[in-house]
Amino acid sequence: MSFDIDRVRADFPILSRQVNNRPLVYLDNGASAQKPQVVIDAITRAYQDEYANVHRGLHYLSNLSTERYEAVRGIIARFLNAPHEDEIVFASGATEAINLVSYGWAAPRLQAGDEIVLSVLEHHANIVPWHFLRERQGVVLKWIEPDADGSLPAQKVLDAVGPRTRLIALTHMSNVTGTVVDVAAVARGTDVPLLVDGSQAAVHMPVDLAVIGADFYCVTGHKLYGPSGSGAIWISRARQAEMRPFMGGGDMIRTVTRDAVDYADPPLRFEAGTPGIVNQIGLGVALEYLMGLGMANIAAHERALRDHARDRLRDLNWLQVQGDAPDKGAIFSFTMQGAHAHDIATILDKRGIAVRAGSHCAMPLMDFLGVTATARASFGMYNTLAEVDALVDGLQFSRELFA
């Protein structure tokens, strides 16, 4: 499928609605993306015509549901170019996925004084699980700060690695500044295990795990135009072998007796209980939709949006955009003198423009930037150059109100 923006927009029914008697301009994709009709239809079909619990059922519907559900591992593996589909562990999203690594891999291996290197660009999902280890086991969190333009050079990460470093945990793309981190260069430069939060990056550009060379890479479905409550983490076989189960219950065991438990092989070992069956099926459909469009095509379209937005926003000398790394994604967080971020978002909403305001689950970054909150416009594959202009017009209107 070639990338035709009008055709793409037609696939998303919500984009045709109005908000406050204005055409919806949805620029909150960094929080959650909208869903194409094929995903909505797949969810409806799964509940209406095909639903049953997965695994071990002998009847037709259980077998069909299991087939649909398990096929998603292969789809995710293809989307990320993962070596083996059994390295794909389902999760409800990146938060659960990173907690799985914290509890299942890091906690049994790290001791007081051992270090985890991470950056102030991280989302709380890639911060709080490591604070658990700091609080409970005396693990040291070693922080890296970006350059003045928001860039985070790989060498700066590598320079922070020391003899007690046991893990590097990095975002692939900041959800606040759009900074893209060269995680492949980090992986090449050290033998220390690397966890990458791909929640933002996997939405906006091709991801090739064979090139990146990380040990853990997580994605979250609701940003990938799929359902909330869906996602996955790729864990190399070598790291899987070092992990203990995160949660105990059904589906992650072979046998249970009064005296012992025999755990299932990965990935089921890390997937206790009845999973989000329909959510993951919906995610699989969303990823097939993205691959049909072509991630390189999506990335090219979003680069055009980024460049146009960057040029237009630079003309607003009263607007402070946070972070301007050269190869950043189409994410713009900003402040305006005399107006709180929540005020900006409220005024834009009256014009049908949806942006997010607050700390964006990135309080260490807010502290580094010297702000308490920003407004954020985050673009997706269905946004247009005209919507960039609508945002700028809305910001100019906001400025006039607060000037």
Automatic annotation (TrEMBL):
Its cofactor is pyridoxal 5'-phosphate. CDD domains: SufS_like. InterPro entries: Aminotrans_V_dom, Cys_dSase_SufS, PyrdxlP-dep_Trfase, PyrdxlP-dep_Trfase_major, PyrdxlP-dep_Trfase_small. It catalyses: (sulfur carrier)-H + L-cysteine = (sulfur carrier)-SH + L-alanine. Its EC number is 2.8.1.7. It comes from the Bacteria. Residues 25-391 form the Aminotransferase class V domain. It is an enzyme of class 2 (transferase). Keywords: Pyridoxal phosphate, Transferase. It holds the Pfam family Aminotran_5. GO terms for molecular function: cysteine desulfurase activity; pyridoxal phosphate binding. Signal peptide: none annotated. GO terms for biological process: cysteine metabolic process. The keyword Manganese does not apply. Belongs to the class-V pyridoxal-phosphate-dependent aminotransferase family. Csd subfamily. This is cysteine desulfurase. It comes from Paracoccus jeotgali.
